[in-house]
Design a protein that fits this description.
single chain; Jelly Rolls; 2 domains; eight-stranded antiparallel beta sheet; 15% helix; 31% strand; globular
């Protein structure tokens, strides 16, 4: 900035802008490592239906849980993007139901849906949904890195109609999927090892899949009733 512009703008204004920028960076740094609730049990603030400016009415709040009551709500997506994080929540799937938790989602109109870009941790009625028997070695079962890696313990999941506690950790190119207190999948979340997994999956020709190190988190509308509660996240 030359002297003329400096004088016109004013030293006080410049200092204020610098202070604002520094405070913003400090606030972001302070949020890291702290648990933040993504659902207060009363409102869907901080969420929207995929490529919409609102939450569609098929997503409801019942008994302090987010519930997809019927098909047509589109995937429920966070307003904010996350890179490295630890996410905890509880989910309950209906009999014969299917859903998923998708991360690093790129919300762009050239993509049909969150699963076009974001890897998915499966939510399923393993007993009665046919997808449980699809894929390879169980990589469509609950807790799996969908179509890429199966859970190491297929007994960790609770049956349809019961609450399951899930945890997803993404940090430094590594990921973990936990189910009811058991770590069921260790997986790469970036780099050549993830590329190998993608190359051996249904996503191998999908442009944009798994490429982003940051993105939104989505709860999938697969057409079946599903409930989510006690949702919180910690940026790492």
């Amino acid at each position: 900035m030359n002297c003329t512009k400096w004088q016109a703008f004013g030293k006080a204004s410049v200092i204020a802008l610098i202070t604002l920028a520094l405070c913003g960076n400090n606030a972001e740094a302070q949020n890291k490592g702290k648990w933040v609730s993504l659902f207060d049990g009363k409102s869907l603030n901080g969420w929207h239906s995929w490529q919409s400016d609102k939450v569609l009415p098929q997503w409801k709040i019942e008994d302090n849980a987010i519930v997809l009551a019927e098909k047509g709500g589109k995937d429920l997506v966070t307003d904010k993007e996350y890179g490295d994080f630890e996410l905890e929540l509880e989910w309950k799937i209906s009999e014969g139901g299917n859903s998923g938790i998708i991360y690093h989602v790129i919300e762009d109109k050239k993509y049909c849906c969150p699963y076009s870009t974001g890897p998915e941790i499966q939510v399923l009625d393993d007993e009665k949904h046919p997808d449980s028997k699809a894929g390879k070695n169980g990589n469509h079962k609950s807790g799996s890195l969908y179509d890429m890696l199966p859970p190491t313990d297929m007994t960790a999941v609770k049956p349809a109609g019961e609450w399951n506690k899930a945890k997803i950790i993404i940090k430094g190119g590594h990921g973990e999927s936990w189910l009811n207190g058991k770590k069921v999948v260790d997986f790469p979340s970036a780099g050549p090892e993830l590329e190998k997994l993608i190359a051996n999956s249904k996503f191998k020709t999908w442009e944009g899949f798994g490429v982003s190190a940051k993105g939104k988190i989505a709860l999938q509308d697969h057409g079946n009733k599903v409930s989510y509660r006690n949702i919180r996240i910690k940026e790492l």
